[in-house]
Each structure stands twice: as C-alpha cells, then as structure tokens.
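Trying the structure run again after the queue cleared.
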Amino acid sequence: MWFILLVIALIIIAAQAMLWRLQRHLLAALQISQERTRALEEVVRRIIVGQSQKEAEARNAPDRAIDDWSLSEEGDEVNRYQRAHMLADSGRNAHYIASTCQIGEEEAELLIRLKSRSSP
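Done. Tokens:
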C-alpha cells in the first residue's frame, strides 16, 4: 500500500514540475507577444501620424505654393492679378488677397464674386 502511495506521489510531483515548466514557457511567450504588440502599436501610430501629416501637407500645398509665389516685379500688374485670382480660387478672403497682392479690397471682393458666379 505504501508503495502505491509513493508511486502516486511521484507522479503528482512530476506532473507539477511539467505544469510549472509549461507555465513558465507560456509566460515567456506572453511577454514576447506583448512586446511585439507594443511594437506593432507604435508602428501603426507612426504610420497614422505620418499619413495625417502628409494629408495636411497635401491640403496646404496649393495655399503654400500660392503664398510663396513672389511677384517678379512690384509694378507687374499681370502677375499681381493672376496671383489675386489664384488666391480667390483657393478661398482666401478679400482682405488677405488685397494685402498680399497690393490691390484694393473692392477689387479683391470683385474677383471673389466673379469666382463664385463662375463656380457651378
């Protein structure tokens, strides 16, 4: 009888040792998975931030191109009105157009009204 109890006790100890090793293995795998998940989340966050920055740059690119476009000569009326027309097309207000292109606000308002009439 003692022999059977001893064998059962040894089986239980061996099973506990195997379960302990399996538990340690699973915990290690869980830690690795958590690290990979954190790394993936960071990559996704960077992609989202980069994508939103690119979208913002794309939205602002026409405005920036118009704003950075310098007049070749200050007295060049054609360039001044072309720039005013481009600013009106981009949705700028009359005060901004007038101050940027050195034209009167009334002229800028007229350009905006003409643009709004030509738009469907």
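The helical segments are 2-68, 77-89, 94-101, 105-118. Worth checking whether this holds up in the mutant runs.
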